Amino acid sequence: MFRSAILCLVTLLPLAAQPAPGSGWWMNEPLRWLQTNLREPDAATDPLALVQQAAAFHANVLHLNMGGIAATYPTRVEFHYASPQLPPGRDFFGDALRAAHARHIRVVGRFDFSKTRKEVFDAHPEWFFRQAGGAPVIYNGLYSTCINSIWYREHAPKILTEALTRYDVDGLFFNMFGNQSSDYSGKALGHCHCEACQRKFHRMFSRPLPESAADPDYRRFMALSAQEVAADFGRIIHQLRPLAGYFNYLDESTDGIMSESNTGVTRPLPLWPYTSSANVNRARNSQPAKMSINLCMQFVDYAWRFATVPAGEIALRLWQNIAHGGALAFAINGTFDQQDRQAVETARPIFAWAAANEALLHSQQSAARVILLSNGDPSSYRGLFRFLSEEHIPFAVASNLEWTGKRPVDLVLTPGPMPAGLAPYLAAGGRVLSIGALPGSPAVHGYVRVRDTKRFPSLSLTSLLLLDGPFTETAAQPGAPLTLVPPSMFGPPEKIHIDIRDTATPALLASHEGRALWLPWELGTLYYRHSLPAHAALLRDLVNGLLPHRQLETNAHPLVEISLMQQNGRTLVHLINLSGHSQTAYFPPVPMRDLRIVLDGQFVSARLHRVPSVLPTQTTGGRTSLTLPELRDYELIELTRAAPSTVRK
Length: 649
Description:
Blueprint: H1 2-12, H2 25-28, E1 32-37, H3 47-56, E2 61-67, H4 92-102, E3 106-111, E4 115-116, H5 118-123, E5 138-139, E6 142-144, H6 150-166, E7 171-174, H7 195-205, H8 216-240, E8 245-248, E9 256-261, H9 275-286, E10 291-297, H10 311-323, E11 328-333, H11 342-356, E12 365-366, E13 370-373, H12 378-390, E14 396-398, E15 411-415, H13 423-427, E16 432-435, E17 443-450, E18 464-470, E19 482-485, E20 509-511, E21 516-519, H14 523-530, H15 533-546, E22 552-554, E23 560-567, E24 570-577, E25 581-582, E26 585-586, E27 592-600, E28 603-608, E29 613-615, E30 618-620, E31 623-631, E32 634-641
Parallel strand pairs: 1-2, 1-11, 2-3, 3-7, 7-8, 9-10, 10-11, 13-14, 13-15, 15-16, 16-21
Antiparallel strand pairs: 4-6, 5-6, 12-23, 17-18, 17-19, 20-21, 22-27, 23-24, 24-32, 25-26, 27-31, 28-29, 28-32, 30-31
């Protein structure tokens, strides 16, 4: 088989020293990543002009179309076609690569193997996605391929080998990796029923393909199929170009965690303004050996690729990328010749500022001592994310428990019941706040009664909290600080809650000498949906009880997002002004003044880099205080620690 031959050939090639995990150029250089999703006609434009525009934009990584659906170079591999608009004798990609390298701009080639032309389908129909009735999937004249077919397993490696041996690329990126469950118009496609999928699924699970793609075995099947191909592609890239990076939207086998901040006109509200922060924070702290490249997309939705989202939204996404230690990454459709230039002109000065301050923007790591797990219901996770941000509690998001024992952690918040893997952390003295009902718990439309008012000082005016959603009932517990109030009559007004009754069913349970708390109901989801002050107040008191000492304190408005980072011995405080966000709109943020910050550590200087100046600092009891005169859209404070000999004990 060609796949075996290609991999055998790769293993025989002389190897340069391959970077150890976490040591490639993408980890150690400041990244100002510009993706240009070129259209077929763009292959006829001047590649040198595009590179010149990227350089003027202060990009130092150019993410450029290379091949798959339409090659931008004169490919010689059968069933791989150059763009119909690529002029005879022109090598768009090769010319752009050479021009970019001459300007010290790295180039990441973009491939998309998910679709190809009718000629390939006619020659090899067995390579393609088949719907339940046997029909292929066709979109704008392109036929969808199958991740388990020879197209991905044997033919794509031929194309990659040609590309990698001809061009000294700095990396490759793969779009739409694997079988898609819907097309660009949102039409559901079901799952592939091609012969390759049927045979492989039967070998793995000893049964036919299921009727639903939601079947747990089928989900595992598709995940493993994509991971197999991803691993093969990674081996080819790292063998043929040992110093090149490998990127797609999978976490496995790749060198970076790719994600997007984007919008869609049919998405449910409320609008989530922390999209970049959530993507980058999770990626950098879940897999710290991989860089987060969170592409900030400029368009509103697929059907309107040339209409841009508000300028304030673009700016917010880009600042959030930087503030959490990821690449400054921005994507446009086509070339710089945009018909709506708002997004490009919003990103341009941010890229220029990042270039002028690049020494501070690489190799950043979170200094936060609170962990938020990203498991559980997405709404619950978002509610807790918002709460921590509004409370200015520095926190790191993790999708796994690999951080345990590797970094100091004062508190872990988890949406849903506590994972069993946290037991060693708890046994070592750790503290955990778990929020969420057990799976299958019935919904309750009632209240939670506050019984211990001294324990919850933020609820001095509130004794009943709205409860709407799953609630896990446990044995009655006399003296519980929070208890369940079951549903009662709510109308007509003459009957409002006249039958209300209290119970001893706990709405808060404790273990491990009070270091582990469990709210068996969806407080995070309720806060995300309704933003009720009482829900935030309960969260605040619970966190304060488990975290009596906060790493950072401030008088900043809740809509000031703050991240605490470390970089080469420096401490960096990023502040982002979210006050311009209102419902579905983004306006210029309202300037914030006289923001006082007190944080752990003794620092002798505080230097501002967005509005360059030096702030006075005061140190007392191992903590440093400073006042930021004004926050406009974003600020970066660089703190320098006192020399050990000058620190008072």
